[in-house]
Amino acid sequence: MSCLYGVGVGTGNPELITLKALRILQSVPVIAYPASEQGNSFARSIVAEFLQDNQIEIPIILPFKLEKSAQPFYDKAAEQLAEQLSNGRDVAVLCEGDPFFYGSFMYIFNRLSPKFTTEIIPGISSVMASAAMMGIPLTYRNDVFMVLSGILSKEVLKEKLRVADAAVIIKLGKNFSKVKQVLQELGLVERAKYIENATLENQQILSIDEVEAETVPYFSLIVIPSQF
Amino acid sequence: MSCLYGVGVGTGNPELITLKALRILQSVPVIAYPASEQGNSFARSIVAEFLQDNQIEIPIILPFKLEKSAQPFYDKAAEQLAEQLSNGRDVAVLCEGDPFFYGSFMYIFNRLSPKFTTEIIPGISSVMASAAMMGIPLTYRNDVFMVLSGILSKEVLKEKLRVADAAVIIKLGKNFSKVKQVLQELGLVERAKYIENATLENQQILSIDEVEAETVPYFSLIVIPSQF
Q: Which residue segment(s) compose the domain that B40 sits in?
């Protein structure tokens, strides 16, 4: 019986994959990963050094423009993976961070899990990796912890942040200025820290006021640690 | 210059530690870990197979009874570790889950980081591991995600859960019945899932109604996944 693995590969530093992820990656005949229309894949780049020459690779090509619905692309990818699984080949899908935490693997999972055996290998999330890289404890004792998307409206972000003791705001990109305004209005600018390319060589950790809004990547984030 | 490492060892399955955690664990001369007054240490048991005979081991003995303040115990442990660090020995403190996410390592970190170089190795959190073991995607797209402690009052839990799209409730133990009541009142009993000993051989995943309240361990948790 073949198996579909969702393998968390963490945030960028290859050493932050788990022993189990490494074992699965090196034992399956088929590796799949999200990739741009040009074929670039961040997930693949994280584990490139561990892949074997004789593995079949299936890029899951996703449209860059968010306006375009990604669903037909997942349909096509699921079909390709189903073919491999039906032929008795185990397939590992590489997932940035953790497969079930704000990932795109879920769209593959939801299509294939009714038909095939699946196993999820959890990965280091950018939430934990960022606090670790900053050297700032994130949550203590009975803190209310929240993860929010920068895509949410200013009003929603404000309302939610008010009831959190600690929070991480993901998906910044062009939402950075809006999020900064929210932090200003809630008096959180001093406490919050910004990080991009966490755990990679070009990692940057900045105070909110140091960030140039125009240069903020989508996968950067802001950590608002607990007040101890 | 010696270094204090906070090493996340994940939730129980030794294969879920990172390559970096393994490298650090096997290269430092001193290993420390939280332990009971009887000397039992769950964190140590996770990585026992990787430890070397010639490593110095320092148990950080913590009182079992929560009424007793743990602070004097952390003072004593920090002193012991400081002595090793001052003698030029790197020290790795084993941390269940992730070191900066509801961990007890923070109390050591806050005492020693002003004086010594520190580095945090993030770990797989029970939050991600539990969803993976259940095979249930936790959060999609722009979901508001929350982690709540079962120790919080019924009123607070209800108020917070109302504004979350997905949540994990940690620290159950004798708080289970209260939390179950909250889930009932919010109509979340069907959606929620219970897990204990996640990623271990004696792992149990149950629906809320199947759980026997008297047997619930403190480190079990409830996952309320996003509604896709």
A: 3-121
Q: How far apart are CA A92 and CA A50, in angstroms?
A: 13
Q: Which residues of A touch B101 (CB under 8 A)?
A: 127-128, 131, 138-139, 145
Nearest to B122 among A128, A136, A148 (CB): A128
Going residue by residue through chain A (228 aa), what tens digit of pLDDT does each one get? 899 999 999 999 999 999 999 999 999 999 999 999 898 999 999 999 999 999 999 999 987 666 568 889 999 999 999 999 999 999 999 999 999 999 989 999 999 999 999 999 999 999 999 999 999 999 999 999 999 999 999 999 999 999 999 999 999 999 999 999 999 999 999 999 999 999 999 999 999 999 999 999 998 999 999 997
Looking at residue A70, its pLDDT comes to 82
Question: Does residue B31 share a domain with residue B104?
Answer: yes
Asked whether the beta carbons of A3 and A29 are under 8 A apart, the reply is: no
Q: How many whole angstroms separate alpha carbon A144 and alpha carbon B170?
A: 11
Given a contact cutoff of 8 angstroms between Cβ atoms, the answer to whether B203 and B135 are in contact is no
pLDDT on residue A228: 74
- Asked whether residue B191 falls in the same domain as residue B212, the answer is yes
Helix (H) or strand (E) holding B35: strand B30-35
Residue with tokens 């979340």: B188
- What is the value of pTM for the model shown? 0.96
Q: Are B52 and B87 contained in the same domain?
A: yes
Q: Are residues B71 and B111 in the same domain?
A: yes
Distance CA B136, CA B198 (A): 14
Chain A: give the shortest CA distance to residue B48, in Å: 15
Beta-carbon separation of B120 and A109 below 8 A: no
- State the Cα–Cα distance between residues B189 and B169, nearest whole angstrom: 13
Per DSSP bridges, beta strands A204-207 and A193-196 are antiparallel
User: What ipTM describes this predicted complex?
Assistant: 0.96
Structural domain total, chain B = 2
- Nearest residue in chain A measured CA to CA from B147: A145
C-beta separation of A33 from A43 below 8 A: yes
Is there a single domain that holds both residue B78 and residue B10? Answer: yes
Task: For helices A19-27 and B19-27, give the axis angle rounded to 10 degrees.
Answer: 120
The answer on A47 and A21 residing in a single domain is yes
Same domain (yes/no): B13, B37: yes
- Residue at which a domain ends, from A76, A105, A121: A121
